Structures are given as C-alpha cells and as structure tokens.
C-alpha cells in the first residue's frame, strides 16, 4: 500500500499542477513563460509540481487591485444557448435554403440523366 502511495501522490500532484498551470493566465505565471512551466512540471514530475505551486503562480492579488484572472471572470462574454440565439437560428435557415437548392439541382440533374437513358434505350430498341 505504501509503495502505491509513493507513486500515486506525486502523480496526482503532477496532474493537479499541470492543469493549474494550463488554466492560469499568462500574466499570472511568475519568473518564466507558461510553456516553460509546463515543461518543468512534466519533465521533473516529482519536483516540478512543487516548484510550480511554491513559486510559479501569483497567488496573492496585488495591492489596490484585482488579479487579471478576476477581471477576466467578471468580464466574460455572455454565451447564449444555440436554440435561443437568433443569429445561429438565422444561419441554420440560410444553410437549409442552400441545402434545399442543392437538392433540387441534384434531383433535376438526376431526372435529366434518366430521361437521356430512356431516349437512348428507345432509339436503340429493345435488345433480345
């Protein structure tokens, strides 16, 4: 049991630090670019996550202001469900019109080809 924990705890810590690093905005990563922190966490999977948690991320908000991630949380774009979004529904209607026109063209082409085949068979006569 202890052997398993010795493997699982660093693995869980690595996964947590990796996801935390990926979710951290670029301007909150300290000392190194975020991509460098990702490589450190993954390459040094026992020491890297501890270093990331200790020194890699800005943990306290600056004095007199909010962190950039707090600003991003409060100023996100409001997403609307597709069935409530009039622009999305209009685009579906336009796509449907295009698809119907394409289908009509295909059907007309098919009818034309069938008619040509009937004429050719009528000209050649029945084969015995």
From TrEMBL:
Coiled coil regions, renumbered to chain: 89-123
Transmembrane segments: 35-55
Region annotation (Disordered) ranges: 58-84
Cellular component GO terms, alphabetical: plasma membrane
Domain spans labelled Cardiolipin synthase N-terminal: 12-56
Keyword terms of this UniProt record: Cell membrane, Coiled coil, Membrane, Transmembrane, Transmembrane helix
Subcellular location field: Cell membrane
Main location class: membrane
Domain of life according to the entry: Bacteria
Membrane topology: Multi-pass membrane protein
The protein's name: PLD nuclease N-terminal domain-containing protein
Native species: Streptomyces tabacisoli
């Amino acid at each position: 049991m202890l052997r398993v924990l010795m493997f699982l705890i660093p693995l869980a810590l690595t996964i947590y630090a990796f996801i935390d690093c990926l979710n951290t905005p670029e301007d909150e990563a300290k000392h190194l670019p975020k991509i460098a922190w990702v490589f450190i966490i993954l390459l040094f999977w026992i020491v890297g996550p501890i270093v990331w948690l200790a020194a890699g991320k800005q943990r306290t908000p600056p004095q007199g202001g909010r962190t950039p991630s707090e600003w991003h949380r409060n100023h996100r774009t409001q997403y609307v469900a597709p069935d409530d979004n009039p622009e999305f529904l209009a685009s579906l209607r336009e796509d449907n019109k295009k698809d119907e026109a394409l289908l009509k063209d295909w059907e007309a082409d098919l009818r034309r080809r069938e008619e040509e085949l009937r004429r050719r068979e009528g000209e050649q006569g029945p084969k015995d």
